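Same chain as my last thread, 59 residues:
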Amino acid sequence: MTAFQVDQAVHIWITHTTFCAAYVAVVVSARLRELDLSIEEAAADGWQQPDKRRAPAPV
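reply #2:
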């Protein structure tokens, strides 16, 4: 590959990555806005039950 082809390939890769990251951000943020907040509250309540012990972390 010549230097021009490498430069062009890098440009295409950066452009493609930037476009896809923006697209993913828009789709994920739209889905998160539709998320029911009771699911998040239930997850937080389930983790903080005082009668359950946490497993010790390996040292």
